């Protein structure tokens, strides 16, 4: 009897499912940067064999979300100061272009929705709530971009940005970030491209500075906590 021709597709599907679950856990912060990834534990948690877990970890290493350390294992990437600065420098320039692009045909209903969301937030708003809405807001900008290649580049670095997001709000009041969103939204809705550029740069610079301050003060602590790269 011939082998079932759908078997490879099933196996590939399982590998993709494991990859997506592990990726989402990392991006959402369920598995924090610096954490060591155990194939055995992850396989048990997801009720699969170690093979798709191993392949998923290798795939995540190619995206930069996971760092493979010889003789030590796999760790969720804990960005260095330079890597974080370089990433946010690139993010700034790409998102400025995306926001400018969005000014031509702004998704008004979406922008008004997020304006209400961020306007209602206070410094008492849980950081997790802000981070979730911040992630969704910037994803909306990427999706509204009509420049296919620009959107592709932003999506390629979005996971690394999301990895850093929780740390970028650790040192500053929530309203410092929500004001930035409101300023971007108002500029786009008014069609003021120059203002939209300025507010986007200012907003991401605030996030970058907060992230670098956190890493400066806590990276060594996180490395010790998770034995990162040891």
UniProtKB/TrEMBL annotation:
GO molecular function, one term: DNA-binding transcription factor activity
CDD domains tied to this protein: WHTH_GntR
Keywords recorded for this protein, A-Z: DNA-binding, Transcription, Transcription regulation
Keyword Transcription regulation: yes
Secretion signal span: none
Span of domain HTH gntR-type: 12-79
Xref: InterPro entries: GntR_C, TF_FadR/GntR_C, Tscrpt_reg_HTH_GntR, WH-like_DNA-bd_sf, WH_DNA-bd_sf
Pfam families: FCD, GntR
Keyword Magnesium attributed: no
Tree of life domain: Bacteria
PANTHER family assigned: GLUCONATE OPERON TRANSCRIPTIONAL REPRESSOR (PTHR43537:SF24), TRANSCRIPTIONAL REGULATOR, GNTR FAMILY (PTHR43537)
Protein name: DNA-binding GntR family transcriptional regulator
Taxonomic lineage from the root: Bacteria, Thermotogati, Synergistota, Synergistia, Synergistales
